[in-house]
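Loading example: each entry is read as two labelled lines plus one structure line.
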Amino acid sequence: MIVSMSKVEIVGPKDLLRDVLTFLRDRGIFQVDPEAIGYVPPEEEKDFRSFSLDVQTTVERLFLEDLRLKIDGLLASLPALPVRDSYIDPSTIVDTLAAAVERHSLHARELAELRDALQKERADLERYRIFLGALASLVGSTRETPDLDFIGLTIRETEMVPRIRDGLSRMTDWKYELQTETAEDGTLVGLITVEKSLADQVRKALSEERVPELTFPASFSSLTFPEKVSYVQKRTLEAGAEIERSEEELELFARRWTPLYRSLHGWIDDRLALLKTTAQAYETRMCFFINGWMPTRDLGKLRQDLQVAFGPRIVIDEKEIREEDLERVPIALRNPAYFRPFEILTSLLPLPAYTSYDPTPFIGIFFPIFFGIILGDAGYGIVLILLSLWLRKRYQKSRLVRDGAAILLVSASYAVLFGMLFGEFFGDLPERLLHLPPLLVDRRTAIIPMLLFALAIGVAHILLGLVLGAVSAFRRNVKREALYKVLSIVVIFCILAVIASAAGRFPAVVTRPAVLTILFVAPLLFFSGGVLAPLEFLKSIGNIISYVRIAAIGLTSVMLAFAANELGGLTGSVATGVVVAGIIHLLNIILGVFSPTIHSLRLHYVEFFSKFIEHGGRKFEPLKK
Amino acid sequence: MNLEKVLIAFSAALAIGIPAIATAWAQSRIGSAGAGTLAEKPELTGTIIILVAIPETMVILGFVVSTMILFTVK
């Protein structure tokens, strides 16, 4: 249901503005809206202006905004750890932390940079270690002389080796040696041995061909190959220990200071929100005015609480909601416990306008029924009930899953009910095993009756939508739209009467007056609905036919279940038959969750709600901590 | 007689098959555009679901016509 809202004005002496706003924020039921101002006589307009902040408050606001930015920077450089809440009142440590925040940011940044540099060094060392390991065998077989140079490289693809050899042959006139080896991580590494005079030329060519050369840092240059290997091992261990130390230090720092800074950040947010709201008030020479919205049911209690807290100095007044205010009224939805889980389905739609309806109760009533008719199998329903109970128990803390499970529970219960009426329990098992006929109708054979039943549901649903649309239009004082909806209902009834009498279900005498009524009402439809009225009316007829999907999707579900049992029976063995039928039934259950959900939702979103729900409401966002 | 039955069945198959292909084509186009839209504006989920669902009416109408062919043409 859409919560009834009141347009409210709170008036008092200017010195109490901050206290009143704090009071309202603590209650969390009042949304400040400077546009919701009541009527001001033209002669008083000159004395009535937006509340201007004094110099001291402006300075405070700038200081707090700057401090918040600095705290954001500090918290971003600290590791995100689960830390305790601070018990210290943040207002008492503002100055202390403001003086320390820059120093703390610098320290945290230095620690983080040191850790990052060490991590990078360790990653490089690991690369060198793998490379050196692969080269060990190659270098061991190569004679070191002062005239030779060694170039180590990593080769991305084996196919590149012949190309590299070709290039080297041309450049060095066959005076080279290229040895390759596969490293422990699977990379192909190579060692080129060439004359020192040709080394630079080879390096340049490799770089142009994008064959990465593995260069060692300057600190490696004076080391022999075995020394390089042992240096890498030693330095890797040292870097690991240093990383651990810097992380410990950073963590200790974060655990010590994060709670305090987070608590201060929250306090600053509250304080700035309050200062921002202050700017939304109005003032005269002596008084302030706060205009806004609040739930009507809370108005009496707020009036009483303000009286107790401030006495007669603060006056709260409920203003008349004018027609132009209707678009501004914020929307809060409040539904009984049964309907509340269905809010996740309506939250996919934009909020309804204040003069419209909350779609939640409608979807809460009709969605499970449609789901039940489409699935219509007691066995599948019981499986889904068990699944919903398990989901509810397993994911107690997730509201989304809990609500989804609640919807599934109700919908699956309807599936059990309709399953009993259709005589379906994992398809046609009751009839196949126990020779039990369906209580109401066999969906597998009664295709035309089920189509007519689905159409009847469509007629009822769409007519209900049109009635609600007419009421909504009357409430909004849009009489032509209301007339169009009423006339549409009349024409639909007349068309149904003509079809029923043509099919012999109604007396033939009904046909003539029904046709005459349609002919009489048609011009009025044009008048009330405009040039697009015939199109709109045809859309309504199309919407009704769209409900045939309830029977069509249901038919596919029952046929698949029937096929599962048939195939199970054809196997000739009980165990194999149960497995085969079980797999197909499982597939049907999975489809039986998605398909009825999507089609039932579509019938609501496209066919039903388009008849009466006006979207475009804005969310109720009260001032609160 | 048998040829008539074949033709009736073939007509019913065409009546549902062609709208099914048309619906699939329309939904594939709307669906891919909708997925792109949702990446930038997740708040339009409801509108996109409605847009994707609209072409389904074609196949439902095809189903109705196909059923009428099968059950009313003698």
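Chain B has three helices and no strands.
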